[in-house]
Amino acid sequence: MTTKSQQAKGKLRTKKEYIDGLSKKRRNVYFDGHLIDRTDELQMDCINTIGLTYDLAQDPKYKDLMLAKSHITGKRSTGFVIFIRAKRISTRNRT
Questions:
Q1: pLDDT single digits (tens) 25-75
Q2: Residues 19, 47 contacting (CB under 8 angstroms)
Q3: Which residues contact residue 38 at a Cβ distance below 8 angstroms, ignoring those fewer than 6 apart?
Q4: Theoretical Cys-Cys bridge with 53: which of 35, 80, 83, 88, CB 3.0 to 4.6 Å?
Q5: The pTM is what?
């Protein structure tokens, strides 16, 4: 698992580290009215897709495509996370 000191040095998480991190979070995901684990089989298509972005970001062939500069820290991060934040801001600012 990536530690805070590794993150401070700019080390990106791997797909495995991402999934391990999800499994340690509290259960607050519902499917069809039932509380499920964050790593429940029902979630795995999404989890694998997001996890792939972490692995591709570490591949020199895709690194420039998969990373974006964070508007918060100024460091490069997986673009997937940054794009979600931008969408939330864009949606929130609509009148």
A1: 988 889 999 999 999 999 999 999 989 888 998 999 988 888 887 777 788
A2: yes
A3: 22, 23, 25, 27, 29
A4: 80
A5: 0.65
d(Cα 11, Cα 3) in Å, to the nearest integer? 9
Rounded Cα gap, residues 40 and 23, in angstroms: 9
What's domain 4-92's superfamily in CATH? 4-hydroxybutyryl-coa dehydratase, domain 1 (1.10.3140.10)
Annotate 25-93 with DSSP letters as a single string: S---EEETTEEE-TT-GGGHHHHHHHHHHHHHHTSTTTHHHHEEE-TTTSSEEEHHHHHHHHHHHHHHT
Q: Are 36 and 43 in contact (CB under 8 A)?
A: yes
User: Rg of the chain's alpha carbons, rounded to an integer?
Assistant: 15
